Amino acid sequence: MNKRIRIRTWFLGGVFTFLFFLLAFRLFWIQTVSAEWLKRDAQAQWERNETIQPKRGTIYDRNGEVLAYTAKAYTVIAKLKPWDKADTSYVENAFDTAQKLAPVLGMPAERIARLIENGRDASRTQVELRPGGWKINEDTAQRVVDLKLPGIFLYEEKKRYYPNDSFLSHILGYVDLDGNPVMGIEKIFDEELSGEIGEYKLLKDRKGFKLPDGIETFKPAKDGKDIYLTIDYQIQNYVEDALNTITKEFNTKGISVIVADPNTGDILAMANRPHFNPNSYRNISNWTNFSISSTFEPGSTFKIVTLAAAIEEGVYSNDETYHSGTYRKVTPPIKDHNGGQGWGTISYLRGVQESSNVLFAILGYERLGKDKFYDYLEKFGFGQMTGIGLPGEVAASLKPKGLLYPRDVASMTFGQGVAVTAIQQVAAVSAVANGGELLKPHIVKEIRASQTGEILQRTEKETVRRVVSEKTSTMVRDILETVVTEGTGRYYNIPGYHVAGKTGTAQVAAMDGGYKANKYIYSFIGFAPKDKPELLVSVVVDQPDVPDSNFGGRDVVSPIFKHVMQNSLQYLKISPDLKVDNMKIAKPESIQVPDLLGKPPSVAVELSGKANLQGKVLGDGTSVIQQYPTSGTSLSKDSVVYLITSEHLEAPLPDFTGKTLREVMEFCTLLGVKVNVLGEGFVVGQSIPAGTIITKGEKLTITLHTKSDVDELNVEEQDLQEEIQE
Predict the structure, then answer these.
(1) Which domains does the chain have, with CATH numbers?
(2) What are the PASTA domain coordinates in residue numbering (predicted)?
(3) Which of 27, 182, 237, 583 is 20–30 Å from 283 (CA)?
(4) pTM (2 d.p.)
């Protein structure tokens, strides 16, 4: 008996001892071997790491017009199962729900129902109704809410918006719904626009509630920087309007238009056709920015470079003569564009005006020679990228000099057998217009801090090299004006302004090295005013559907150039420089706008008066927080300077009759008023009467007519009154 008890006692003691050592070993194991992952698991229960997404920077035009911004968006979610028996907030009837959502989301009801049913079959608790319900805007989201459908919820997200739809699409690019930048400014400046992600670490109890003072670490997000482009919204609008009109009337393979300031390299407008709407990017048919990525044989617009080189080297004289028609010093011979008939023995000046291929073969091939001519091509920037700052630019490489045959060189002098891009030609001709300096074109004006508006980076004028002298530049400008007044560019003349430029017609190159029959690229590049160019406009139209008799595609190209150039000159208040009624129009005195920020309204008005300007106070604040135009801007005497003293403005609308479009835009930009423009010239009517209090977000339609139109209307009205009196 005692022996049995002892055995039991030893057995139980052994068991407990074993369990004790097992427990001790387990504790040792937990505290040493498993300590790290247990600590991580515990921390996961009491700590919560959260990321803070920054706001993507906004893209503006040069005057602060919003071109791309980030705002709220919503994704539609269908809840498929109840949380418990009492929960009724889930989709019970998939087909009925789909029928009601379909017209709002723009999706077939069958597809919505299938998404819901497939989600149920996969035992999901919820499903996103993509693509129609993915990142919808607030208006569409409100329509979904108004349906009051059980189980349909909205998840708040962010989305990139392009308020002007297709406007400037190839330059801006877009951000897709997954947040990836594609193309254009959005892609190449993604790092600046994206900002930096923030984060914080939060302590909570076992039930998941935040502990008092439970934030351990906090790193705020840094919002993306804002990008200000050199683009001028209103000039871009003129370009878009012109292209919309032309593409409705003519079928073309493609169109490129660039507007530049030849004195700074600023690109004021750039547009292509076909284009696309970045808000619905799935429908893109043309991904290529023709202006910088497409190469073409320029034809006669290239003669500007040959002419400038010949004048610079002293081998050109206006009065020297030659025999036009056919040039036989190379094989096959070169013929003038009128079938080799030519115009007999004519002066060099007449040869430029008639766009004679023979003349330019003489100048480039004979007088300059291959080496010198090729050197000038490189000096003018051909065969190199301009560095404009947009993705996808190509260099349009020149054929190596050592591989050029005599016929190649002779052909290149008049723009055949050489490839260029539109932006290369804009840079080269700008050098002729501005006095001889090749400038680097640029599309970005400034990068600013989004919160403070501080300028972090500003693009300054950048001179690449001097290519010709000012004397040569002046002579080329004078000659190119005669091309417009007396030569092939007569259809590009703009009343009141000295316009200089050159037409171009080039056959489309074929893959076999030849040329396609009856397929042409028509172009014109010109600048104004001729003696002091402020604007340069390049128009390139690829294979428009026009008859062969339409010389130089003038019915397609000239309306674009004239609409853009004339309206832009008036918008920029560039006074006509031609004689009108036998009197030279006097240029207004130029006055620099003083810096009036931070000053009391009464002081700002007084300082404006001393500068021979009219200070107009808007708002009821105690100091000027914004002024328009900004300090340093050149204005004519008695121009208005708007002095903003309040954040939220309500102001009476002025009478804009007789004002220019620029003056209207200046005022409306301050108030955030959208302007719809009808016609061109000076204001003759406005949709909102003068004196009406107008606020941000309202829309104003103004009607414009040129001075000649207004005079004609006045004459007609006077005649009608005389008839009534009789």
Answers:
(1) 55-194 (3.90.1310.10), 233-277+292-571 (3.40.710.10), 588-647 (3.30.10.20), 652-726 (3.30.10.20)
(2) 587-647, 650-706
(3) 237
(4) 0.76
